[in-house]
Design brief:
This protein is mainly alpha-helical. It contains four helices and three strands.
């Protein structure tokens, strides 16, 4: 028989793949990932707010700058992590043997909230953007 190697993010979260199927582990990972997904979401919000001009009512950026790739990268990274947290929370929230339903619900709702905020950020950016030639 082949010995399973643990999947390690941190020492506290070391699990084997067979144990990852349990609802408690999924709830814990969903909780942690939903909290982590706020970091790139906050970075994208700060980028958009910093470049927003209230007089024109638009987000202004240079045509040769790195604003758009960094902004879109932050949003996509946050959406990927939040979608994973949402899926992990959803898969473990109604499991009958789940001993951590609060973490599962938190991961589910916070992951869904971050997905919604990122979608709003992207739509808002593409509706009120103004490219300034350099």
């Amino acid at each position: 028989l082949r010995k399973e190697r643990p999947f390690v993010i941190a020492k506290e979260f070391a699990v084997t793949w067979s144990r990852f199927r349990t609802a408690e582990v999924k709830a814990s990972y969903g909780f942690v990932l939903s909290v982590i997904s706020w970091i790139p979401c906050a970075a994208a919000t700060v980028l958009a707010y910093r470049n927003y001009d209230p007089i024109l009512g638009q987000i202004i950026y240079g045509s040769t700058g790195r604003f758009v790739p960094v902004f879109v990268g932050c949003v996509l990274l946050s959406m990927a992590v939040a979608a994973t947290a949402f899926a992990l929370g959803w898969s473990s929230v109604l499991h009958p043997r789940n001993e951590r339903p609060r973490q599962a619900w938190f991961g589910f709702f916070l992951g869904g909230g971050v997905l919604t905020i990122n979608l709003i950020l992207m739509v808002t950016f593409y509706m009120i953007r103004l490219e300034r030639p350099m």
